[in-house]
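Lecture notes, unit on protein representations.

Consider one protein chain, 122 amino acids long.
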Amino acid sequence: MSTTHSIQIISNQMLLLDENDNGCDGHLLTSLAAAQRQLQRWREQYTFDYSKAIDSVSAFFRQQAADKRGVDAAFERIAQEVLHIPTLRTRDSDGLDFHDIGVASLRLALQAAYEAGRQASK
């Protein structure tokens, strides 16, 4: 009789669990391609719902991308509103890419970034 395993994602780890939810193996989620390769290796040795695992891993990376877009938007807003820098995109021009920033403005920008992170973690 074949033992059925399950895949669970906790934080940025993909875990292979046995039927008693004991950890058998783990994989750090760094890229979708690497996660898919690991799932293929596990699939050769263990029985688990492969399509459900692929869906979970894909959802994890979609959420990571959405979170990054949110962070990037927060940084852009702080740059514009606090530091009066129109964009954080590199424009390959010293006059456009380098800015003189006073320490008081820098402190306000850091406080705004800290507060945005604190609010996001609630």
